[in-house]
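Hello,

Our lab assistant flagged a job as stuck in the queue for most of the afternoon. It eventually completed. Since we weren't sure the result was trustworthy after the delay, we are filing this so someone can double-check. Below is the sequence as submitted and the structure that was eventually returned. Let us know if re-running is recommended.
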Amino acid sequence: MNQSTLVQIAERLESLAGKLPEKIRRPVLRELTPLKQLFLQQRRPRFLFIGSSKMPMQQIIDPIFASDREQRLNVTLTPVHRWTDWTIPGHGTISILDARGAGNSVQAQIEDELRREPADIIFIFDDGRSDLNEQITAPPGETKIIGVSLGSATRVVQLEEALDAQPHVRDRLLTVVRITEKQSAETQRLMSLLAAELPNQAKIEMIRISRDRHAQLHVAQMLIKSTTAICAAVGAQPIPLADMPILTSLQVLMVSGIMYISGRERSLRAATEFIAALGANVGVGMLLREGARAMLKFFPGWGNVVCGMVAGAGTYAMGRAATAYFLEGASLKEARQTYLKSRRKRSRRALPSHE
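-- returned structure --
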């Protein structure tokens, strides 16, 4: 699925939202924002490296981002003191600006790079031999900082104390970790922290690299929540089936997004095939909506709100089933059961009582 497809879906959704009543338009646009950030505005995470370490870049980032030999990072370009892309085949790409040990003569160049593309996270490296009593120079601003020690466990404590003693660093310090040649629990904790702290635009790429299950589930839930809310809000409108084409596209996009988070390629066709395998027709939520609207003529007072809830039930169920299958390791049969159970549960909430 190319970027132009995502742009078209976003533009059609915004156009549709513009036709909605003001009370509904604002929530729809609010839920659309994280979807655009996560997928339409997706970019590589940008990390600034500063500090004392003279260790070669490959030896630093391989244990963190590519612990498996088959997944060693490939550098596409090797400019000095400029943003450089490092790619993990089949996973993702990160951008690194290596300013470790940079002298005054290149500070202007580094500042230009940061103005052009600000760093998401600053890494302060300590090789275990530098004087921690010296002032640590970090770019001003609010960018979060992570201390990285390449020395002993005792040195980690010393580095943390040194960073904590500097006010311009202390208030931005996320953690201090120790990196060894092999991936450890510390590096996995670091990967999880990065996935949580990065802005939405860079979060997806980091999650694909880290394979952090908690982060995957968090973003999947965010995706399901926003998609369900949009489908429910628009589905509550009285124009019969007029909104089906764009909302069915959004349902498929939700499933393909969950696939992409899991590390697979993003494919609308594969997402549609998965939905069909669940036994759900694309647009099932909208069809349920029209049936509910006809039935609700006999239940005065419930109105279009209930129709929207019914419309969102199918969307939510698809998202839960996709999460179970692609992220939680469920079989297709188990995912189908999750879909049916979730749809029934959400649909029952929308139906009026007989009292």
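-- support follow-up --
The delay was a queue issue, not a problem with the job. The result is valid. Confidence is low (pLDDT under 50) at residues 283-306, 351-355. Residues 3-41+211-350 form one domain.
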